[in-house]
């Protein structure tokens, strides 16, 4: 389990190039600065940005088959990106992947666009719209943290999903319970993986 900021930094560093690691440090600065102006992350998590936000996002990569993210793959789609996790963190860690972030709130969209610009993330674009209004495209991965209850999330995201799409849904402590509430057909399509950043939290992953 990743329990400290130092462990979180070491974990993330082991997953990426030095240039990505440095970009994450810069992103942490931008995030903490902006958090003084708008409510992006909880005050309590300001001291634990690497554990609660960066490592928590980075761990999703371990649940994607290598071939899903091969050259020329469809974009990774992150729903309700808000302050950046997990989609913007993935875009920083994997500059080889196309990543699309959907966020509807104007000030958050402005912040995300500024980050993409200042961090020179040419692989990442921000769609400042409600997901319901976004023209569908096939996604290799659909991620969403704290976006919507599972049933609604699956309904809104289904136009972007293909037979090969991998869903990665960090659901905190409600993961197993939320999945259990679904119809059997849905339950069979997903399972829960243990989160590395919180021993009580789970990630709902498609089979
Ligand atoms: C609780 S925040 C989570 C932000 C981020 N994913 C995280 O984990 O820190 C949920 C975000 O989803 C956005 N959102 C909610 N419904 C949306 C929709 N239908 N389309 C696009 N964004 C939406 C909200 O504006 C908000 O920024």
TrEMBL record:
The gene is rsmG. Belongs to the methyltransferase superfamily. RNA methyltransferase RsmG family. This is Ribosomal RNA small subunit methyltransferase G. It is found in: Cytoplasm. It catalyses: guanosine(527) in 16S rRNA + S-adenosyl-L-methionine = N(7)-methylguanosine(527) in 16S rRNA + S-adenosyl-L-homocysteine. Its main location: cytoplasm. Keywords: Cytoplasm, Methyltransferase, rRNA processing, S-adenosyl-L-methionine, Transferase. S-adenosyl-L-methionine binds at residues 80, 131-132, 145. It comes from Erythrobacter crassostreae. Its EC number is 2.1.1.170. GO terms for cellular component: cytosol. InterPro entries: rRNA_ssu_MeTfrase_G (IPR003682). GO terms for molecular function: rRNA (guanine-N7-)-methyltransferase activity. Specifically methylates the N7 position of guanine in position 527 of 16S rRNA. It is an enzyme of class 2 (transferase).
């Amino acid at each position: 389990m990743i329990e400290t900021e130092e462990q979180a930094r070491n974990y993330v560093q082991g997953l990426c190039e030095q240039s990505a690691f440095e970009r994450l440090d810069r992103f942490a600065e931008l995030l903490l600065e902006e958090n003084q102006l708008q409510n992006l992350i909880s005050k309590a998590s300001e001291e634990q940005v690497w554990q609660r936000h960066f490592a928590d996002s980075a761990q999703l990569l371990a649940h994607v088959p290598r071939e899903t993210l091969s050259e020329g793959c469809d974009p990774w789609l992150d729903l309700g990106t808000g302050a950046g996790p997990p989609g913007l963190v993935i875009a920083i860690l994997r500059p080889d992947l196309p990543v699309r972030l959907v966020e509807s709130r104007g000030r958050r969209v402005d912040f995300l666009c500024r980050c993409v610009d200042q961090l020179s993330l040419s692989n990442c674009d921000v769609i400042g719209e409600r997901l319901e209004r976004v023209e569908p495209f096939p996604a290799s991965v659909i991620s969403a943290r704290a976006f919507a209850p599972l049933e609604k999330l699956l309904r809104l995201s289904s136009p972007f999903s293909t037979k090969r799409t991998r869903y990665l849904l960090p659901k905190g402590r409600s993961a197993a319970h939320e999945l259990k509430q679904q119809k059997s057909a849905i339950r069979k399509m997903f399972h829960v993986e243990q989160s590395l950043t919180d021993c009580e939290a789970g990630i709902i992953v498609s089979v």
